[in-house]
What does this fold into?
Amino acid sequence: MAWQTQASPPAQPGPVSTPIGSPGPATPPVASPAAQATPSTQGASGSVEVAGAPVQTGQYNAEPMGFYTDTTVCIGCKACEVACKEWNQLPASNGGANLLSGLSYDNTRRLDGEHWRHVRFIEQFDESRSQGRWLMMSDVCKHCVQAGCLEVCPTGAIIRTEFDTVVIQSDTCNGCRACIPACPFGVIEVNPVNNTAMKCTLCYDRLQAGLQPACSQACPTASIQFGPIRELKGRANMRLEQLQGQGVDQARLYGADDSIVGGLNSFYLLVDEPEVYGLPANPQLPSRNVPTGAGLSALGAAALGVLGAVGLRKHRMDQFAEEARASAASGAVDGEVRGG
Amino acid sequence: MRLGRGAATTYPGNLVHSDCILIEGSNMAECHPVAFRFVMQAKLAGAKIIHADPRFTRTTAMADVHAPLRAGSDIAFLGGLINYVINSERWNTDPFFKEYVSTYTNAGTIINPEFQDTEDLDGIFSGLGPYQEGEWGLNGFTGQYDNKTWQYAQGPVGDQGRTANTAQSGETGVSSGQPGAEAAQVPVGPPFDPVVQALLKPPPTSDPTLQDPNCAFQILKRHFSRYTPEMVERVTGCPQDQFIATADMMLANSGAERTTSICYAVGWTQHTYGPQMIGAAALLQLLLGNMGRPGGGILALRGHATIQGSTDIPTLYHSIHGYMAHPTILKQHETLTDYVKAEALPRSYWANLPKFMVSYLKSMWGEAATPENDFGYGWHPRIFGDHSHMPMVLAMMDGEVKGMMAMGQNPAVGGQNAVMQRLALAKLDWLVVKDNFETETAAFWYNSPEVTGGQIATEDIPTEVFFFPSAQVAEMDGSYTNTQRLVQFHHKAADPPGDCRSDVWWTYELGKRLKDLYAGSTAPRDQGFLNLTWDYEPEPEEVEQWAIKDEPSFDKILREINGYESGTGKLLPSFTALKDDGSTTCASWIYSGIYPEEGKLRAASRNPDPVGGPGTNLNWAYSWPANRRVLYNRAAARPDGTPWSERKKWVWWDPNKVPAPTAAAPNPPPGMWDGYDVPDFVANKAPNAPADPNAIGLAGHAGTDPFIMKADGKGWLFTPTGLVDGPLPTHYEPLETPVRNPLYGQQVNPVLKRWDREGNVAVEVGDPAYPYVLSTYRLTEHHLSGVMSRWLPWLAELQPELFVEISPELATEKGIQNVDLVRVSTPRGQIQAKALVTRRMRPLNVADQVIHHVGLPWHWGYQGVVTGSVVNDLALLVGDPNVSIHEGKAFVCNVEKA
It folds into this structure.
């Protein structure tokens, strides 16, 4: 009664055809979340240059790490939202006494300074119910390879880590809000408790200790998978092939290649247009709008100390943030076929 | 009652071996999200997922097929599947099905020719008569069957199962258990083997060709013949194409090479015919050959935390540890020998009942339990009626019951007809609530709608209320028994704050104080309490590191549960070591083996299978009985003992494997069952072993009889005994319904339990004042009555307000917009909720009517961080006749804009 002890190979499209006890798809192709991201025990302590200083990592190799979110197995349980809040000690809206949104089962509504994970619910039903889907997606900061927030942060509070993730350091954030409209995904907002801009850190503290992020660990169905980006891409492509083989023509990856702001370190498998999930089809970085010369002159102006403009700037930035968020959220909220 | 044990036949992880999974009566993704991970793994491996449910839920969102059906119409749907399957070409041509069914089930057993079916009697079975209430007066039955004509033609066989016990305890005059035992001339035990031997009757007769018109298979074929796809659509509202897609998918994924499993939860239990729904699923799985096999079976998704544990070592009134019947005055239970005569099954593993019972009595009374005094059996409390929650609330209303302890229970929100629950609390002399927070039950006397609304004044409530704060799970040693019978130990991590204490501490201290109060009494009725063994004082080293020094010893409790030699205290290796002479002590025989030797607590073992293994994880915690993970797994092999297929290999006969020698058999012949799982069978009983008709216990079963707890070793397609409302599942309407039963003249379950009185009035069929079908249910974001979620801001913000789910069609009809405040009403009460208008709800066409469903999650109350109306104010106290569960999944209401 000896069975194989090696790890099972990844999922193959199509039905199971191998016996129990032999390696193959009869064994769950997706290992438990805890097993997905075993910290590498060999070659640890990679060192990379970040802001000029060599940084020792914990147990993970210093290589791009992130999330692959397979929305087709998301059951909308929101364990990720709660695990994120618990680990990062984020407050609940109004002490928990929130209002019913009426937007499907979504009552936290968006990503902001106190919601670093957010599960979207998209109801798609025709009148006869002969066609019906309820799409769910756990959304989070994309940790863009070309990060708009990082481009615009005037204080250097936003950094790129040795894991290629993007982190806002609260102690050097002055709450200027520049990053809020700079993010094409509407991820960042000021946390009302400490008045600094906040978002997902991809659990930088946990990664440094060789742990996986709280959300992916809590995910019961392995919809949120954490690991080295190159591995995740392989998994995602296999799953995409499987779905396409099953006739899910709309299946696609979003952010897995470099076409979306240079690539997303949190990328998604979707089964509809990105806008349906509140994701921009063609997100743009702030730098695109700024000719090099103008950028220099703006810097020059700043250097001249036009301090009186700061108040006005804050007001404008808030407006931009609101607009950015509204456009990001529109896909989900206006879900063309929501009941009612 | 069809298979032999009241528990899930499989475990969630085994679903990864399924080729098809039918989820019905369960919103598994929302209510069991962690177990649902295995459904998703199966799906990723190519399995088909079917969800049959009135609503489109987060479970449906993951399914390949959604079969929408009217709440409460599941037997019509399952009956349709049964009829479709047995008339299908595949089932009639693939030899697998014939071989499995004719060998492993009672399909061929000849039934009493006087039996009359619902086909003959327009919806009732033979033997129906009026019910006479007994002394208790609150049993509630509306009728009573004499099951004499349901028996095997050769004579009755008994059934030992908790379903039957429930009903027996509530009934007078119906003798199931071991019918006919009263007349048998049997000796007095101990020893009890001669008692059991005297109960033996000739084995049943059978027609292996399944052609005899009185065989179980032919009866069931006739019984389900009217459950055609057209009729299924007419009764359930499920369009025929979705029904047929379901049937074809299950058929195509059953057989030697493939298996289908069924998952259900309280969507099947909370009806006036819930056990019959589950029985229909078991029947279907037996017909499809899915029982006892990997990726097959029925996964009963038990409630949360340790609900399975609370029936194993029960907080139930009608059974004692290990599913033994609670002694009752309603049956011949006068002496221990009488009890054995009524409850033991001579030709089944239940022939060992005397060993389990005597060992249990020894755990109760220790040295005071002797052969001379029937091991203290006479001290054991007896029940005298249905003492389940609903009748007890009525007894509180009537002043019969004067006190209540609510521990981990919040009846002011969670109880059916919660208005009546709270009014009953206000009649008590005293109420103890032990919980994490000041629950609605604890605060009813000043904050219930009846008080704040001026219906009753606080000063007029005589109830003295005591509130005790609870320790949390990480603040105590203990265990959970989860849905798969898996007992998992958890270690104490920290002392609880302040005066918070564990439930064990509280119960132990209460017992000590009561013993002090009883001290010195010479009253015979007090002797049981005085003789009770009650010594769980912790050893110093157990509490050394903690501030709380008097937390009872988990180790001592567990020794008693596992069992030990009465004289020496030596731990017992398993329940096979139990004796009926008092030399062993064991509180719960099914758990015996969990602590088989010093220092070896199997519930705490944490060694998973390697990746790529079969996933039985036999060294991860402990699964009763005997660490078996898939029950009835003898059926995973062909009658000759070889696997049905390489792909579905699980347990098989190895003719060359040599059993370990024992004192009784120093040179055992080769031949043993082997496999990935612990065989649920006699380890060295060959597949071709014949049944010995004169032997008790499992020697009375052949090597091809997988259902070792049943009186004939077979899976029961037809249940001659064990159910009080019929041997075959039959579609009845819920008590409250807008629909006349389209299948039979008989409208509702003819023996269901009703408690009609002021404040608990049912709606008549088709009353236009209450036209909508209402189901109550739970959400992922909250837990039951909200005590463990509505007080937690992180969970509260996810679902902050009570809502009512309605379709846009109904909303338009009633002029309701999304998030409008809506009033939902029944004759019992009315509540307010915000409308959630969604196409996930859909009208169904049923029997030429359009039926609208209304859905209400029931997590809210008047205490906590977020509050809202108590949904159970709407519900009716009405019960299933077998298990006294309420009908929370299908009743009627009205909806109006507030």
Q: What stands out?
A: Residues 389-476+496-526 of chain B form a domain with the Rossmann fold fold (CATH 3.40.50.740). Residues 161-184 of chain B have pLDDT under 50 and may be disordered.
